[in-house]
Write a structure and sequence with these properties.
globular, mainly alpha, single chain
């Protein structure tokens, strides 16, 4: 656990230093037009904030939380899962911005039209991939939950069934670094407001800045997302480990796992419903209410709920200890 934390802290610190160092070295020295002295600083802060906000999108949080629990059930290190996911996702964003700012001229028109091949592909790919992954990992955690509930108190849960279930699905999610691939696949959706805003921002910056200076902004986006996804991964690994390591905390582990599974299934259901409404004639009246659910702050709700359950567990344990000491004193 401590080694995972060190890896996340060192990697995120390096990304932040590289991104902001690049901004200082490449963007600030540019002689911008009069009256726009804060132009570069404002864009840099916006890019960093967009990355941090994107990390709390519901699909990010649900994917990282459920994967973290799956890895821990297999007694695998899990603290870097969030960081690897962010790096994979950011690879797509940096690549897209690079294509845009070097003047290839293919990406901007595709993003500006809702009916372009890229927009139509992203509108289907993003929700389908994220929903399929969330359903698969939620299913594995449901198996883990059922197995855990059927064990006698104090017996440690074995992770074998989780591994076998993953293998049967052609997936071996047995190392945190494999979340890099998941992040790549999620990133190909280009379907979030934060990603589109960053690409548009970089496209505007290249008008006033050299193309290589404009590439600083996706790096700032990456640093912001890696910071928050990395912290989420570390935080959830600690919270889940706390619930797993002592079976007397089973009810809190069950509450945490149930919350993660339900959140993943809800996010997946909304994603699949949105695709169905767009692609299947006549189904809109049935699925429109589900497809139109606003999950804008749902990622914060998931993270806050996990923290609240963890805090309740700590307070409950402290209360029992105080009660035990009181009885002993008597």
């Amino acid at each position: 656990m401590a080694s995972d934390t060190r890896r996340v802290v060192v990697t995120v610190a390096a990304l932040v230093l590289i991104a902001w160092g690049g901004f200082v070295a490449l963007v600030l020295p540019v002689d911008l037009p009069a009256g726009t002295s804060t132009f570069g600083v404002g864009l840099a802060l916006t890019a960093f904030a967009l990355g941090a906000r994107h990390a709390f999108d519901a699909d990010h949080v649900a994917a990282i939380d459920n994967t973290t629990r799956t890895l821990l059930a297999e007694k695998r290190p899990a603290g870097t899962a969030g960081l690897w996911f962010a790096l994979g996702h950011s690879t797509i964003v940096v690549g897209a911005v690079t294509v845009l700012v070097v003047g290839v001229g293919l990406l901007a028109p595709q993003l500006q039209s809702d009916f372009s091949p890229l927009a139509m592909f992203a509108g289907i790919w993003g929700p389908l991939v994220s929903s399929a992954f969330l359903i698969a990992v939620a299913g594995l955690n449901i198996r883990s939950l059922v197995r855990s509930r059927s064990q006698p108190e104090g017996e440690q849960s074995a992770g074998g069934p989780v591994s076998r279930a993953l293998i049967r699905r052609g997936i071996r999610l047995d190392r945190p670094w494999k979340m890099y691939v998941v992040g790549l696949l999620f990133g190909l959706g280009f379907d979030t407001a934060s990603t589109i805003a960053l690409i548009v921002l970089a496209g505007g910056a290249v008008v006033a800045l050299p193309w290589y200076a404009a590439l600083v902004f996706p790096l700032l986006f990456t640093a912001g997302m890696a910071l928050c996804d990395g912290l989420n991964g570390i935080g959830m690994s600690r919270i889940y480990a706390w619930g797993i390591e002592d079976r007397s905390r089973r009810r809190f582990d069950t509450a945490l796992l149930s919350m993660s599974v339900l959140s993943a299934l809800l996010v997946a259901a909304v994603g699949l419903a949105s695709v169905a409404v767009e692609q299947v004639p006549g189904i809109e009246p049935v699925l429109a209410p589900l497809a139109s659910l606003d999950l804008g702050v749902f990622g914060f709700v998931i993270a806050g709920s996990a923290a609240a359950i963890y805090l309740a567990g700590l307070l409950s344990r402290r209360s029992r200890r105080i009660g035990s000491r009181t009885e002993t004193a008597r």
